Amino acid sequence: MTLITIILAAGKGTRMCSQSPKVLHSIGGKSLLRHVYDLSTKLENNTIHVVIGHGAQQVKSSLSTLSIHWVEQTQQLGTGHAVQQVGGAIGEDATVLILYGDVPLLQESTLHRLLSNVNEKTLSLLTVNLKNSTGYGRIVRNENNEVLRIVEEKDANDIEKTIKEANTGILAVQGRALKKWLTQLNNNNAQGEYYLTDIIALAVADGFHIATCFPESEDEVLGVNDKLQLAHLERVYQLQQARQLMQRGVTLRDPARFDVRGTILEIGQDVEIDINVILEGNTKIGNNVKIGANTSIKNAIIGDNVEILSNCVIDNAVIGQNSRIGPFARLRPESVLSNDTHIGNFVEIKKSHIGQGSKVNHLSYIGDALVGCQVNIGAGTITCNYDGVNKSQTIIEDGAFIGSNTQLVAPVTVGENATIGAGSTITKDTPARQLTLSRAKQVSVINWQRPIKKEKL
Questions:
Q1: What does the alpha-carbon distance between residue 6 and residue 4 come to, in Å, rounded to a whole number?
Q2: Distance between CA atoms of residues 7 and 49, nearest Å
Q3: Positive or negative CA dihedral for 214, 218, 219, 223?
């Protein structure tokens, strides 16, 4: 089967109260339109057309790397008019699938069921039964339960407004028939628009059967029109991700307080994740990993048996197995920690390699550094890597011991098994296996009087 998918994404989204086009607002760190596009790519032999209008250039730029045929609807005159803009690209023998750029949670299984009903005399329509169908087009059936037409909310009479079966707008039909019906649409309705839904009555008049199917849940076909609906679908999506992870054996302390904003490429067994953890980008997590509360992890590779304590930020970093991070630690991009490392509270690592078994446990900044194995870096240590123009590297060789409150002014090398005395400022390379320290002479002043505040009169 040759498939043409048309994604309607031209609307302004006035109720979003935003300068960004509606379809660029995100769920799970991915735009609404990207969700729909990604779903479409799972269908075989599929050519994807996206109809854009409001903020067209912005929408195109956001998905510029993807294989999309862009079609611009310069005037937004309704859904039927939008599909008409693609008319010339619709193959007569192809099956045409109509999707919407603001309906992000549709499932692949639903589309397969929808497409399986299409033939030369059958149009397949996705409908949903709603407790409150206000605002939706209603499915009008005859006494034999056959679909006759769809009536939009503004054109419905009082009896039709009581119908609970609503139109999702999602349908599939043979291209030849669709092209014919598109030429027969008119805008004689309350909104003065060309409704795509009018093709249902035209199909019935041509002797077509309207086959309907339903989604597994109402949330699957809900569109986003305002920030309340966006927030609702965000939580639906996140709970879906949480359930999938728990089915794979992950322990989530509270599935309602956990967010995935990207792709978990790999995740091992016996992983425990506490509350308010955010996983962004592409992340790999090994076996027996524990992630503490309020931690953000982005584009990271985390080895086996790693413990990340609460309130850490991990960004584009690699953590070797059997390591311990935090609490309140920050690993910035291009940080690579070897196995058995310890990065403690209020420590920041930036663009540095930390060797196996090394420890940076307290209140330190290590940037643009190459740290060897079995190095101990004391509290308050700073690698002074930036002179205001250039960034330089600090090298700390295997077995070195850096005393507390030390400043290492790069470029500088600390030799193998060297010791740096606490409170030193090191500006020159230090020899291996020696103690190096740099301190001003300590002086005590006799009869010194501490200043005393004078009382105000």
A1: 7
A2: 6
A3: positive
Strand pairing report for 122-129 and 165-174: antiparallel
Largest CA distance in the chain: 109
| SS3 state of residue 68 | coil
Sign of the Cα torsion 192, 196, 200, 203 reads: positive
- 315: closest CA among 301, 328, 297, 303? 297
Start-end of H helices in 127-226? 175-182, 199-205
Residues known to be catalytic: 362
Q: Is the model's pTM score more than 0.85?
A: yes
Find the helix or strand (DSSP H, E) in which 245 lies.
Answer: helix 227-247
Q: What CA–CA distances, in Å, run from 312 to 79, 187, 272, 319, 368?
A: 47, 57, 15, 13, 20
Per-residue pLDDT of the chain (457 residues; tens, 9 = 90+): 899 999 999 998 999 999 999 999 999 999 999 999 999 999 999 999 999 999 999 999 999 999 999 999 999 899 999 999 998 899 999 999 999 999 999 999 999 999 999 999 999 999 999 988 888 999 999 999 999 999 998 899 999 999 999 999 999 999 999 999 999 999 998 889 999 999 999 999 999 999 999 999 999 999 999 999 999 999 999 999 999 999 999 999 999 999 999 999 999 999 999 999 999 999 999 999 999 999 999 999 999 999 999 999 999 999 999 999 999 999 999 999 999 999 999 999 999 999 999 999 999 999 999 999 999 999 999 999 999 999 999 999 999 999 999 999 999 999 999 999 999 999 999 999 999 999 888 899 999 998 888 887 7
Calculate the alpha carbon distances from 442 to 209, 439, 445 in Å.
Answer: 96, 8, 10
Q: Please spell the DSSP secondary structure of 313-352, one letter per residue.
A: EEESEEE-TT-EE-SS-EE-TTEEE-TT-EEEET-EEES-
* Pairwise CA distance, residues 364 & 359, whole Å: 11
Closest listed residue to residue 50, CA positions, set 1, 90, 10: 10
